Amino acid sequence: MLDAFADESLRFTNAYSASSHTREAVPALLTGEFPDIAIGSDYRLASDTVASTLSEAGYATAGFHSNPFVSRAYGFDRGFDTFDDDLHLGQHKLIALAQRALDKLRNRHYARADEINERSLAWLDAQTVDEPFFLWNHYMDTHGPYEPPGEYATLYADREVSGREAQSLYQRAIDDPESITESERELLIDLYDAEIRYNDEHLGAFLDALRDRLLLDESIVIVSADHGDAFGEHGYYEHPRYLHDEITHVPLFVRLPDGSSETVETPASTLDIVATIEGILGDEPAFSLLQPPDEDRQVFSQARGEDEHSHLRRYALRTREETCFCERDTDTGAIEHTASTDPSLRSTLEAHVEERVRVENGTGGAGEEDGGDADEDDAVGEEIEQRLDALGYK
After folding, report:
1. Complete domains list, the chain, with CATH
2. Nearest-angstrom CA–CA distance, 377 and 381
3. How do residues 222-250 score in pLDDT, each as one tens digit?
4. Are 139 and 113 in contact (CB under 8 A)?
């Protein structure tokens, strides 16, 4: 389905996420700011999202997803008229308890794509005709633990894998990557590919629904991702705090109302998405995905280290042909280059790092505090902890 969508879109072949994992990549995608500005040290939203900008301009705004890290518990509902983050606790406790029991019974860790489609299309159908709108759907189906549903479970794998086995294998790949055999690695990839196929079908169904409602040719539709997953290429699985291509090189398709098609090799960043959208309101961006120049360009990514690497900040610079990586030790201030021998690229990346250090020192890394009901916050926090555990984050 995405292949057909790509055939009537601008296809960016050198697109990169601003970071490698949800907690930094999605805030950057929604705000158009690097993570060191988009969020605080506690990962709470610290900048306005594109939803806030469009809401102030008279757009109806809605978001539908089920990732706990970008939920209202971290302030990501700001600017959205409707924000469905699939957290039932804190909305109505009795219903939530029943929902949680059902979710456990059917091994449900997040809202599947068909659920996201159903909810977002219901919201669309309730909107006033001709009212401009901004809709963000975030699909979790190509996320670990890899458990493709129904017939997709054996689409590539030669046997059906139980939820318990899939979760155990995924967690072991994260905790002890060297223990994964070649056959287990192939199984993980087969299950991941099957989830991609499932998600592809439901993305297609959503796009067909837009076409049926005569909205597709009246809208700008952008499809991208916050990160990918690695399968042992650099000694790790999943998407930890590194910046290799496997986890930062993302799809990026921009469909214009006229369905014009073009392959764009100019490097692009997920940071360009917000700038492009806000450019529609009249604030012309330095780089627009709607009219990308055919030229080389430098794009940057960043990631905070965690656990024993929490003192590290990782950075990457990419052009059409080259990549440069470095790490900064926040304790000593030392910068170590981990790839690229091109002195010009190294110098450019170091200058970028120095700029980010000034930003980080200036903001202090503190997120904004939102008020709220303490019991509700506790309930939401409990549900988030359970989901993070099931998703392999803990």
Report:
1. 2-297+367-390 (3.40.720.10), 305-363 (no CATH)
2. 6
3. 999 999 999 999 999 999 999 999 999 99
4. yes
